Amino acid sequence: MNTRVKRLILPIxxxxxxxxxxxxxxxxxxxxxxxxxxTLAGSGLAAKNVIAYWLNQKASNLVHATPYGYExxxxxxxxxxxxxSADSKPGTVSAAGGGKSAGSLKNVNLPxxxxxxxxxxxxxxxxxxxxxxxxxxxxxxxxxxxxxVYDTKTNRATMDRWVFIPGYYQGKAPWGIYVGKTAxxxxxxxxxxxGDRDYAFVTxxxxxxxxxxxxxxxxxxxxWKQVDKKTYTGHDRxxxxxxxxxxxxxxxxxxxxxxxxxxxxxLAYNQKVGSSVYVFGYPSGSHPDGNHxxxxxxxxxxxxxxxxxxxxxxxxxxxxxxKSSFTGEGSSGSSWLLRYSSAKRLGYxxxxxxxxxxxxxxxxIDTSVSPYFDGxxxxxxxxxxxxxxxxxx
Length: 393
What we know:
By secondary structure, this protein is mainly beta. 12% of the residues lie in helices and 36% in strands. It contains five helices and 28 strands.
């Protein structure tokens, strides 16, 4: 079954936008108040099996993963009326700087916190979205779109074999691979696919490295340890080798906590609409006119002021939009950063891309939309931010 998130023609404030929708999902395994949470990889062994899926055959699943979602052609004039309102006082959670560095960035304005989340869809194929590290008590939290974590096409609660790789580029993971442990989202998205709640926060285990370098395709760089035949036989066949009657398996190295390696963005909620934000993500795919403007290989950014938006077909009554040429494929989960400092490469997460739109009918995507981050968003974040994950090395 195809699990690519479909984008339908949806009205934003009375006009059309490409939004994100899917079939009704199963009820969450656990829920408390407005927050639902589900296990992605509940043990170190389960997490190692996830790693094996992405590393086998010279990381072919990573290299050949495709962006999740596609956009349909839409045509409309941009109109914006009404809009979201704060449900409590404005608030922020401070950002945190990264302590370690593994390689330099071509553009110093780009945040180290950004990367791609990879997962296996219901079609059995590997896909990816954009995401970012966000500050938490244990330095282990990732924020992305809800539909990049929860499977809105099938009745399975969450995506399979979910990992976050900051700074990912063509098979390289400079700061390691972080396996998702537990996914948190708003109850209304988990159960009703409410477009106003299309965001998720995921706790991740400490990062894993398989060798000296960050190129996951280079088996020669992997570290190996000798084991007995029984251990070798029970190990994933793609991560083992035998030579001269001796048996070896890949020796994983603990890369440490996500936040310690790349830093983490803060969080802002109940902010005034009309604020300026940077959007960071990995757009891919074509504009409706067929122009292929982005490859999805490198991190891109756009900048603009937020405005009120609506998408009633996905129950999106309190969305915000920003002018952006990011095409839909790959840009899902892109981080919207308020008060972003280029010098520190840190700001406050104030949205995640949930859809894109051609609002003037010229067959070129010109707008991205996000749920409005309010007090309930903070509640979901808070439920996720205090949970420890630990090491799987």
